[in-house]
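fyi for ur records
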Amino acid sequence: MHTTTGLVRLGLVVYFGCAGRRVGFGGVGSGHPRSKVGPRYIAEDSPRLWTPQPSSDRSRGRAMAPAPSKPTKPFHPTAPYYDQSTFTGRLRHMISMTDPRLLFTSKAELSRCSSLLAAHAAGDRRATAAELWRARTVLESCTHPTTGETIFPLFRMGAIAPMNIPIVAAMLQTPPTAVGATIFWHWFNQSYNTACNVANAGGEGSSKKELLVAYAIAVTASCSIAFAAGRVVASGANWAASLRPLIPFGSVAGANGANLFFSRSGELRNGTPVLDEDRQERGKSRIAGRLAVAQTALSRGCLVPAAAVLLPPASLWALSAAGILPPHPAAKQLALLSSIYLSVSAAVPAAIALFPQDMAFPAEDLEPEFQGLKRADGRPVRVLSANKGL
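which gave:
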């Protein structure tokens, strides 16, 4: 009993400790993972300048990231806070975007942040840089990057880790021979993934028909792989039993690959837009499109599901082998849930930050039509860039 109580306390400390360390400031700019353009900061119907209040009143009851311990850099309305050319900068940006505390941001707080940024754009300089960066983080985490509409809390990026706790736990603990439960949880997982993708997608987005087809492909692939692998395990072969921990990973990774291939097949066939140093589009490159899809497939298609469904069982096995994991079922369940949360919390930001959002290509590495181009001032175009997408 004392062991279980201690583990419960440890789990709570780990959970809230991780949330407390998720401090940072996001930026749209060219490095934003959801869109190539900034969010629309919409002021209230009756514009008014924001009036500073005492700090205790401004922060009371609001889901805002605490001020940084070091001096805050000057505010910029579009450039990212962290250096997006380094993995560390991209990782810190994504950690700030997936802060679970932002799920509790109220409509009033979103309106205040929007008004604060609108007032700054209109010339009001009474807000501090830290307050402006906080406002950007809140809006970019909680609103659609193109339309500015509020995203339903469970579909925000900060909800990915908490929502995956029951989903991954159910997929890991459901016997592969339980066909109905296996299909349900893989359907639920793909449905949730699709909802998050739609809610956070930047740009013009896909048509309803394309979204439905991509969703159907993902669900069919996930359930089919899980069902087929479950039948193999149920055959009773000794070698087949070792496949059981890999079934959730294979199902999710296969579904992600099928979904990605369909939804971005246009980039593979026709290429993705590339921009010169002046941010002027110069056409579409198939070489850039293939690399963008390949990097996305590796980061989100393989690394995220690997961390989510392979690391938790491996962690429990290591704890058990070391004699640290108590035999009580409640303790094992708590350890599993904590491991899932920590794995997903670390995997999603790290996977998205693995590759720069803006891919840079020397002109000579792309197709011949991109070589020998001239900029507006007559200088040669030496480097072209493309948005990797999600």
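The first helix runs from residue 2 to 21. thats all i got for now
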